[in-house]
Amino acid sequence: MHSPELGGRGDQPAIDFDGRTYTYRQLDDAIAQWIDRQGPRAVVYDASTLAVPDALICVCAAARRGVPVTVENPDARPHRPSIPPSAFLLVATSGSTGRPRPLARTAASWFDSFPAFTTITGVETADRVLITGPLHATMHLFGALHALWRGACVTDDVSQATVVHAVPAVLREVVRGAPKLRTAIVAGIALDDGARTAAVGIEIIEYYGSAEVSLVAARRVPEPLRLVDGVDADVRGGLLYVRSPYRVIGAPEWFGVGDLVELGDNRELTVRGRGEYAINVGGTTVVAEDVERILETLDGVAAAAVVGSPHAVFGEIVTAAVQLDGAARIGEVRTRARRVLTREAMPRRWVLLSSLPRTANGKVARGRLKDLLT
Q1: Distances (CA, A) of 83 to 67, 180, 250
Q2: Per mean pLDDT, which range of 9-13, 190-194, 299-303 is the poorest?
């Protein structure tokens, strides 16, 4: 396993987080001290419960020493029966459909993608990169480690940030207090019109991937998503399969991501939604994410999530869980929805929630949502 090098040197700022600051010289010293404190007998490091600065020091120390490091949600740790010999990062799926699954990846499975990610995002050494979620959500850990590899500064100071990693819902909030923001790197959930409008004047980079195969496709909005170099894709029964050098240990050569997609010319990729959440309404396939995107454009809707519910006649019907913003009542929202949705896609059941259950990286926790709706 090759230890990635820090991209910055000397007095360049490396971390400005939780009121703590490190230059790259200080970060390098902190990594060495961490290794000394752990001692030579430590065979696994654990960053899961640490504050972000300490977690990053821990991960970098593990990379330098060549030992695996755990970065998991301390409140929902997966059962991990063994650790593969080549493992570096011990992470987990987000748990959006159930209990998180343990994943292990080599250092190369992430760090080898960093040059391509730099080309796509344009992150520079002078940037201050805002991380907006916990590191056990892999998109945030990936963004933070890439920033340190690049020589940029990882920060939680919105007012000084020039680049941000965020899901669309968080991006809408961040831009209000980020006057220096130049680039928004969006992942985790498909970019919606509301986030795009809120970030007007800011370059938006959207990338698509999964915890199992990492970076798959990316784009500069409004260009279409395209597969990144080195990644191949195949569509089988409408579902995406990916062959990638960035996949986790033990994944098959062709990994089934589970998303409904269309693969076009010039390696263009259109993602329609999770295949397991395609709803069969009387023989018509309704994609949950398509309905959600439309509902969230309606006046009065702050957030929406859609699932299929069993029905004696149609097989399934669409159930919508809706969080209102106070500007409209549910009856008004239903009326507006009828004007823009097909008959099959129109929810027959509506449930009002004060907030939608979400995973740490901002995705709707559909397993928990289904439990709420049954």
Answers
A1: 11, 42, 11
A2: 190-194
